[in-house]
From TrEMBL:
Superkingdom to which the source organism belongs: Eukaryota
Organism whose genome encodes this protein: Urochloa decumbens
Stretch forming the signal peptide: none
Disordered: annotated segments: 11-34
Name of the protein: Uncharacterized protein
Stored Pfam families: DUF2358 (PF10184)
Transmembrane segments: none
Low complexity bias locations: 11-27
UniProt cross-references to InterPro entries, sorted A to Z: DUF2358 (IPR018790), NTF2-like_dom_sf (IPR032710)
Amino acid sequence: MVCVALMAPRSAAGPPSPALPSSSGLARTGGAHWPPVFPRQPSCRRRRAGCVRAAQDDEAPPVVRAAVSAVTELLRALSPIKKQPRDSVQEAEELAPPPCGSVEDVLAVLQDDYRRAYFLTGDFTPGIYTEDCLFEDPTIKFRGRSRYSQNLNLLVPFFDSPSLELENIEKGLRVETKFVKATWKLRTYLRLPWRPLIAIRGNTTYDLNEDYKVVRHSECWDVSALEAIGQIFVSAPEQQKGS
């Protein structure tokens, strides 16, 4: 995500904030993300190595960034008060699997994370990311796996009937950078008064360093940033029919 989005910090010095969808988690969140149907033609500009530079090539215009900030503050205001977590990333690291020694190892861990719909649950494996990993999507980018985890967790209470389907996952090589690329489909309602439906297809590229840790988590969506943000402000079709 995720989905979520998913991930717009208020400022460099302020607390982290999500932007829908992730990943990041739509928070990714922390990891921002909208007609409720999937468009036929992807808006991401394709390159020879695929849509792996989407967050830079498809950067959101100022109006979208303003909308992300507004939604972030809305989510923050409506979010239930939580105890200060003993950093969920720290807790997960205590139970982390052994370090990955190959691209195949990373791919296997990511497959497990997708089974747990990590964009939508915040349940991911932080040990495969560097501490200063770069997280980006078409609306925002920031560094820090802890920030990403916090953004995902901020969004989780707002998801209603969420689903994340992993359509494909494969390893690749771009110049001298090894990476894993996952293609997914995310769908969830949001627990807001007008109950908007978020529906996105996209892909996430995980760039790896020489130690097989993720140094860059980059999302590309099949809708523009403006279309993605717009979904948040439109009620679900079921709600419209019933009105």
